[in-house]
Design a protein that fits this description.
The protein is an alpha/beta fold and 442 residues long. It has 3 domains: 180 residues, FAD/NAD(P)-binding domain (3-Layer(bba) Sandwich), CATH 3.50.50.60; 118 residues, FAD/NAD(P)-binding domain, CATH 3.50.50; 112 residues, Enolase-like, domain 1. The chain contains 12 helices and 25 strands. A hairpin with a 2-residue loop joins β5 and β6. The longest helix is centred in the C-terminal third of the chain and has 15 residues. It is globular and about 65 Å long. The N and C termini lie far apart (57 Å).
């Protein structure tokens, strides 16, 4: 059996290696349009800041790792067409057009940077941050005192703003929405992030929609922002061109069933290019997280061999780090829940990561979001320690459909040097339940 995988990013490479673990005989080929083996895109802001010393550290595999595992990796193979009838992928390799036949195909084409429509932008030099080459281009701009403008304050935009600030660049961060990280955090934690950035000397401009841009100057209403170099961080959209052109069903991403199979039974898809089902709403959404990609790849590898591994749904649990401040989010924000028509309630509690009398405790903020019946549907955590563990705990609680009362009565471990006697999650759940009890009727 020959399995051809289009895309050598996280989803495609993970599929190849997982498949090889399960089957030592099948032929596995990975067609990667770029020149790099697998690396971690999430690491790039931290390489730019210098927290990770060198770009080489971001790479997960070398070419010899593929060879050792009997995986054929073809770098620079840009697939231009999928012929479903003949079961072949047609790709450009240098100046030549080549084709390769498959028994089963995996599309893992990832995502591409979304660039907003701004007058004057198309004629300018600007950076995005998606690849190692992108990051190297941004890093080459760094000089202390230089001015950078970043358009877009999602995870990538805020992490990059912090990274460039660490490197001595004067950073302006422009966000058209009312706050930074609005897709992942409600107002209380979103404002804390803004305060953190401003304390560092970063100019944070919210409600700032850039209307026009020219060399070294951006205009938003009556505001003018000067810059020496520009980064556009408008998020990402699924790379679905190949799938759409070969007749597969697509929406915002490639449509797949629970087995990660497309509308062609011989073609699977995974990673940033596919749609997922929201655990909370049941609707189709995009995930585009590395953690989602590896879970999907595991399901694809099993099902390529005739298994029945079902991927299920996503909460989009995510974490970020800005210096000492760690941030975690899972499920729906209160704002997103209400936009979905859910009668939602939220509570925020600010406590300490350790007992108040024990030295070294750090502030920690918890936001919980629940529906009118008291079922937990979202959570956010911000602090300088114990953030990752708590957001994973809360993600599990949501996936197990745990309610506020049950959460507030859960057994939490205690030692004063590690936690307060009343865990912040416990206290926040109690506060949220009290608010739920007085939630107005429809």
């Amino acid at each position: 059996m020959r399995v051809v995988i289009i895309g050598g990013g996280t989803a495609g490479t993970e599929t190849a290696f997982q498949l090889r673990k399960k089957d030592k005989e099948c032929e596995i080929l990975v067609l990667e349009g770029g020149k790099n083996t697998l690396y971690s895109p999430c690491s790039l802001p931290y390489v730019i800041s210098g927290e990770i010393s060198h770009f080489d550290s971001a790479f997960v595999f070398e070419e010899r790792d593929y060879k050792t595992n009997g995986i054929i990796l073809i770098l620079g193979a840009k697939v231009e067409k999928i012929d479903r009838k003949s079961k072949k992928a047609i790709y450009r390799f240098g100046s030549e057009m080549k084709e390769i036949f498959y028994d089963l195909l995996v599309i893992a084409t990832g995502s591409i940077s979304r660039v907003p429509q701004i007058n004057g932008l198309s004629g300018l030099k600007y950076h995005t941050l998606k690849t190692v080459e992108d990051a190297q281009g941004i890093k080459s701009e760094i000089l202390p005192g230089k001015k950078a403008l970043i358009i877009g304050a999602g995870y990538v935009g805020t992490e990059l703003a912090y990274a460039l600030n660490e490197a001595g660049v004067n950073v302006s961060l422009a966000e058209a929405g009312e706050r930074v990280l609005a897709n992942s955090f409600d107002r209380q934690i979103g404002r804390k992030v803004e305060e953190k950035l401003r304390e560092r000397g970063i100019t944070v401009l919210t409600g700032c929609a850039i209307g026009e841009i020219s060399e070294g100057k951006a205009v938003a209403g009556d505001k003018t922002i000067d810059f020496d170099f520009l980064v556009v961080s408008g998020g990402a959209c699924a790379n679905i061109t190949l799938a759409r052109e070969c007749g597969l069903e697509v929406g915002s991403g490639i449509k797949v069933n629970e087995n990660m199979q497309t509308t062609d039974e011989n073609i699977f898809a995974c990673g940033d290019c596919v749609e997922c089902k929201s655990f909370v709403t049941g609707k189709q959404i995009m995930s585009q997280l590395g953690s989602t990609a590896v879970r999907q790849a595991a399901a694809v590898a099993e099902n390529l061999l005739g298994g029945d591994e079902r991927f299920g749904s996503v909460l989009n649990a995510s974490v970020s780090k800005l210096g000492e401040l760690a941030l975690g989010s899972t499920g729906l924000t209160e704002g997103r829940a209400k936009a979905e028509g859910i009668r939602a309630v939220s509570a925020t509690f600010g406590g300490s990561s350790r007992a108040e009398y024990y030295p070294g405790g750090k502030p920690i903020t918890i936001t919980l979001v629940a529906d009118a019946e008291g079922k937990l549907i979202g959570a956010q955590v911000a602090g300088c320690e114990e953030v990752l563990g708590r957001i994973n705990q809360l993600s599990l609680a949501i996936s197990q459909k745990i309610g506020l009362k049950e959460l507030s009565r859960s057994e939490f471990a205690y030692n004063p040097c590690l936690s307060p006697i009343h865990d912040p999650v416990e206290v926040c759940a109690q506060l949220c339940e009290k608010k739920r009890q007085i939630l107005p009727e429809k």
